[in-house]
Automatic annotation (TrEMBL):
UniProt keyword annotations, A-Z: Heme, Hydrogen peroxide, Iron, Metal-binding, Oxidoreductase, Peroxidase
One family name in Pfam for this protein: Catalase
Primary gene name: katA
A cellular component term, taken from the record's GO annotations: cytoplasm
Organism this protein belongs to: Bdellovibrio bacteriovorus (strain ATCC 15356 / DSM 50701 / NCIMB 9529 / HD100)
Family recorded in the similarity comment: Belongs to the catalase family.
Feature: compositional bias, Polar residues: 20-38
Catalytic activity field: 2 H2O2 = O2 + 2 H2O
Active site per the UniProt annotation: H70, N142
Domain of life of the organism encoding this protein: Bacteria
Catalase core domain boundaries: 23-406
Protein name: catalase
Length: 509
């Protein structure tokens, strides 16, 4: 017998010796977990078999609703170590030089259900939870610096196009391209999605972005706008459509396997954390809206500042408890970091918490994976899943005269001055150039990457039988980004266009 087999046998023997007695949920011993209680060997079951009833009832409730988006994902725990110095921009303790903070990250695909394959062309979620000494800070981003829409009013419509057609129960490229061609603000993200980076080889081999604009506040009450970036230290690796299809044919869990195995083998994935900083005065002078989720901040104007290193070094012990129940929430801020006028970010402060209360329960934040490491004091009463036993001592409302938790005014943020304080439904297309940056990105690509991009889009349209009217509309959008972008797609789709009226980036002239 092999030496390793002896070790396995010894371990099994030790485990057998240390077995714990099986009980019900109330702690009562279970005497028989193999045979149901019946009236005679062939007789019917009896309702008195409470262990059986409990077992069946629990199985019916073992699943929680999957996430509406980002349903398929993987996660791991690790640390953020700060080796840069941005203390002049923020008073957040976890961002000060030399600090080390525990974190949880969950990667995901956006459109697929929980059973979807990992290696599909899609945006990847990149959600971080930092367990800081001032409470949890959650950064909910993607592997792209931009998104398809800038106004949350359109987010449910966009997600509907990524899910199944109610009539056919199939995903619909026609719906996707119909929405995209009618929403030119999407073309920057579409260009990334159908480029080589739209199909990462693994979660370890892609960058991450906070995507939204946030704010940093320092000890002097100065505010700066900030973008968060995480650059993979494993290098960028992507798949072609054919490589992805071949991989899915072998395993639907390729990203999960890669992440889990790399950590188990102690080849810990790492990302370097950077920020871009913009002053309030600079924000008034950019040609684009710096709070627009469909736009990037050019690195030449707002250079990357290295902050620290993120490392993943522990796999979850129980996937459901630590990953499926993980609730990432843009509401979770700490002193020194805050929100911005980014409309998409502001809408997510409602949508995420609301989703968690529906999906997991009223007190989802009390679950171990979501619970902050600091003491929590508030006046939220009762409700399902109240996991603690609070002692209010008559102080169950506020203000009160019984020494209950009181507001901490030292953490008040400085006022945010807005020039045009008029409330209205503003047309987000007005004053926005939705073509320049997508065209800039296209022009940055070499000939091979342009070919990949155009081939991927054409293949997606042809395979989905997208109607010619929609194809022409999308070609028109790409023509405004760059004539070669639109004409390249037109050639592949067999559509004739006239490009002499377009110049590269002409839309902003």
């Amino acid at each position: 017998m092999l030496k390793g087999s002896f070790k396995i046998q010894e371990r099994m023997h030790d485990m057998a010796q240390s077995k714990k007695g099986l009980t019900t949920s109330a702690g009562a011993p279970v005497s028989d977990n193999q045979n149901s209680l019946t009236v005679g060997p062939r007789g019917p079951l009896v309702l008195q078999d409470v262990a059986l009833i409990e077992k069946l009832a629990h199985q019916n409730r073992e699943r929680v609703p999957e996430r509406t988006v980002h349903a398929k994902g993987s996660g791991a725990f690790g640390t953020l170590t700060i080796n840069g110095d941005i203390s002049k921009y923020t008073r957040a303790k976890f961002l000060q030089p030399g600090t080390k903070t525990d974190l949880l990250i969950r990667f995901s695909t956006v459109a697929g259900e929980r059973g979807a394959a990992d290696a599909e062309r899609d945006v990847r979620g990149f959600a971080l939870k930092f367990y800081t000494e001032e409470g949890n800070f959650d950064l909910v981003g993607n592997n792209t610096p931009v998104f398809f829409v800038r106004d949350p009013y359109k987010f449910p419509d966009f997600i509907h196009t990524q899910k199944r057609d109610p009539r056919t129960n199939l995903r619909s490229p026609t719906a996707m391209w119909d929405f995209w061609s009618l929403s030119p603000e999407s073309c920057h993200q579409v260009t990334i999605l159908f480029s080589d980076r739209g199909l990462p080889a693994s979660y370890r081999h892609m960058h991450g972005f906070g995507s939204h604009t946030y704010s940093l506040i320092n000890s002097k009450e100065d505010r700066h706008w900030v973008k968060f970036h995480f650059k993979t230290q494993q290098g960028i690796k992507n798949l072609t459509n054919d490589e992805g299809a071949e991989l899915v044919g072998r395993t639907r869990e390729s990203h999960q396997e890669d992440l889990y195995n790399s950590i188990e083998e102690k080849s810990f994935p790492k990302w370097r954390m950077y920020v871009q900083i913009m002053s309030e005065e600079q924000a008034k002078k950019t040609w684009y809206n710096p709070f627009d989720l469909t736009k990037v901040w050019p690195h030449g104007e707002f250079p990357m500042i290295e902050v620290g290193t993120m490392e993943l070094n522990r796999n979850p012990t129980n996937y459901f408890a630590e990953i499926e129940q993980a609730a990432f929430n843009p509401n979770n801020m700490v002193p020194g970091v805050s929100w911005s006028p980014d409309k998409m970010l502001q809408s997510r402060t409602f949508a995420y918490a609301d989703a968690h209360r529906y999906r997991i329960g009223t007190h989802y934040e009390m679950l171990p994976v979501n619970k902050p490491k600091v003491e929590v004091n508030h006046y939220h009463l009762d409700g399902a899943m109240r996991l603690d036993v609070p002692e209010y001592n008559h102080a169950y409302y506020e203000p009160n005269s019984f020494g209950g938790p009181a507001q901490q005014e030292q953490y008040r943020e400085p006022p945010l001055k807005l020039d045009d304080a008029t409330m209205d439904r503003f047309d987000h297309h007005q004053g926005n150039d939705d073509y320049r940056q997508a065209g800039d990105l296209f022009r940055l690509m070499d000939a091979d990457k342009k070919r990949q991009l155009l081939d991927n889009i054409a293949e997606h349209m042809k395979r989905g039988n997208v109607p010619e009217e929609i194809v022409r509309r999308q070609i028109e959008v790409f023509m405004r980004c760059d004539p070669a972008y639109g004409s390249g797609l037109a050639e592949r789709m067999g559509v004739k266009v006239y490009s002499d009226k377009y110049e590269s980036g002409s839309a902003h002239h």
